[in-house]
Specification:
- With 394 residues, the chain is α/β, with parallel strands linked by helices.
- Helices cover 35% and strands 22% of the residues.
- It has helices spanning 7-24, 42-48, 76-82, 109-120, 137-147, 156-162, 168-191, 198-211, 226-230, 274-293, 300-313; strands spanning 28-33, 57-62, 68-71, 88-91, 106-107, 127-130, 152-154, 216-217, 222-225, 247-252, 254-256, 259-260, 263-269, 325-327, 334-337, 351-361, 364-374, 379-381, 390-391.
- Strands 5-4-3-2-1-6-7 form a seven-stranded mixed β-sheet, sandwiched between helices.
- The longest helix is centred in the middle third of the chain and has 24 residues, at 168-191.
- The two termini are 37 Å apart.
- The mean pLDDT is 94.
- It comes from Diplocloster modestus.
- InterPro entries: Creatin/AminoP/Spt16_N, Creatinase/aminopeptidase-like, Pept_M24, Peptidase_M24B.
Length: 394
């Protein structure tokens, strides 16, 4: 039986948020959610297992009692059916301006807030916003009009840290997400041959992952080949046909029950050029040395410095194009991100992706990415770290 996030887990999360609210003297948390591909569902999926489609939403968590979802008219029944929230309201502020909804009872943000005050027995004055950077301008100013800007607090950082240490239930789900990702990557490897297009390879891999239970992808699948398509950090999967000697870089992050597995691999069809072979061996070595240090008690700054050191010593430091270690969960790339700026000590049951980048080169680029669970005295690989990067021509 496939693992899922159990019902009690959501109630436990609400209590964690309410404890944080008490600590920060907040009466209500408003967590924004929409259907943006990468970041849109992170808070709503974690809080109430809701994945918005078309219409945006706020998950409102009062200081006392259960959450409420406010959204558009077309989403009310969908949210009631698919989420763990049984209090869902359509409000005018979320309705499409050109639509009419004669079947739906529509209320306002002001009325919903008054109802939450009555049910919780607590006046709502101070409001914490989660996902503030994504809130549309007009909607944010509606909140200002309701509460006053001086009573609104950005809670992205503190709310994100509530998700940083995973529960046993979450770990089971993430392990399975990585099994899906690994099956997809194996299919990528098997599918590489002369004449096949990048999109055909992606289709083969996605079919395998969907059959295993993937809901979709946390980022668009990137199957890229040749110098031009592999050089950028982000690339579109195209109709380019694979040629003998090509470097093929695959990045896949299937989403399962709201959680992600993220794997990146370089492959070469046939015999790799000497410099490409050397760079693949370099990123493999840098990742392995970084993995050896991943354990409780190590700082974010220490972790960030390890892989950079080996790439810089090889004269490729300018191609280490971004921070290479990040958590994964309800976002494929989520805090904590282990940079030189972050003051954080690693804890047991955090999950990290070690992603070694080497992009923006004349010959192309690559990433090597694997997932790891921080354990009592080290880490556990969530996917196979063996890299069979050479694929013989077929």
């Amino acid at each position: 039986m496939r693992p899922v996030i159990r019902e009690q887990e959501f109630a436990d999360r609400w209590k964690k948020v309410q404890a944080l609210m008490e600590e920060q003297k907040v009466d209500l948390v408003a967590a924004y959610a929409d259907d943006r591909y990468v970041y849109g569902q992170a808070y709503s999926r974690w809080l109430v297992d809701y994945e918005p489609q078309f219409e945006a939403a706020f998950v409102l968590v009062p200081a006392v009692g259960e959450p409420c979802i406010i959204t558009g008219a077309e989403s009310v029944e969908f949210a009631l059916l698919s989420s763990k929230c049984k209090n869902v309201k359509a409000i005018w502020e979320f309705l499409h301006p050109d639509e009419e909804y004669p079947y739906c009872e529509v209320t306002s943000l002001e009325v919903v807030i008054r109802e939450l005050e009555e049910s919780s027995g607590r006046k709502i004055t101070n409001v914490g916003i989660a996902g503030k950077s994504a809130v549309p301008y007009d909607l944010y100013h509606t909140l200002i009009g309701q509460f006053g800007e001086e009573h609104m607090m950005d809670m992205d950082s503190s709310m994100s840290m509530l998700r940083a240490v995973k529960t046993e239930n979450e770990i089971e789900v993430i392990r399975y997400a990585y099994q899906i990702a690994e099956a997809g990557m194996q299919k990528v490897y098997e599918s590489i041959r002369e004449g096949i297009t990048e999109r055909e390879i992606a289709a083969e891999a996605e079919y395998v992952m969907r059959k295993m239970g993937a809901e979709g992808m946390g980022i668009s699948m990137m199957i890229n080949s040749g110098r031009e398509n592999t050089s950028p950090i982000l690339s579109r999967t195209t109709f380019r046909k694979i040629e003998k000697g090509d470097l093929v870089v695959a990045t896949i992050a299937p989403r399962y029950e709201g959680y992600h597995g993220a794997i990146g691999r370089p492959f070469v069809l046939g015999t790799p050029a000497d410099d490409v072979k050397r760079y693949i061996e370099l990123v493999m070595y840098a990742q392995e040395e970084t993995r050896k240090m991943l354990r409780p008690g190590v700082s974010a700054r220490e972790m960030d410095a390890i892989s950079r050191k080996y790439i810089e010593e090889a004269g490729m430091g300018s191609h280490f194009a971004y921070t290479g270690i990040h958590s994964t969960g309800t976002i494929e790339f989520e805090p904590p991100i282990l940079s030189s700026k972050l003051d954080l000590t690693l804890q047991k049951n955090m999950v990290f992706s070690i992603d070694i980048p080497m992009f923006l080169n004349d010959w192309g680029g690559m990433r090597l990415e694997n997932g790891y669970l921080v354990t009592e005295d080290g880490c556990e690989a969530l996917c196979s770290c063996d890299v069979h990067y050479r694929k013989e021509s077929l």
